[in-house]
Design goal:
This protein is mainly α. It is built from four helices and no strands.
Length: about 90
């Protein structure tokens, strides 16, 4: 989980740096959205496994985080749409 967090942060900072320079960061933003949202889901699934049965209980925050992570892949633009944007940005 720590590795995912540490790899997500530079992606986000890179977009900010590009926007500060006035450069179009559409492809980079799609890459970041795709990677961060999928990393969030994987980290939440890891947390549920760590907590075991308690991870599914509604009293625990882990269950709620898992639901939120899955929905983040939808409301920020589905992963498939992000992949299409990335492919278009790469000229494929």
């Amino acid at each position: 989980m720590k590795v995912r967090i540490d790899t997500c942060r530079p992606l986000i900072y890179r977009i900010g740096a590009l926007k500060d320079k006035g450069v179009d960061a559409t492809t980079e933003a799609a890459i970041a959205k795709l990677y961060v949202s999928e990393s969030y889901v994987k980290s939440c699934l890891d947390a549920v496994q760590i907590f075991g049965g308690y991870g599914y209980m509604t009293e625990q925050q882990v269950e709620r985080d898992l639901r939120d992570s899955v929905s983040s892949t939808l409301y920020s633009g589905t992963s498939e749409i992000q992949r299409n944007i990335i492919a278009k940005g790469l000229g494929l």
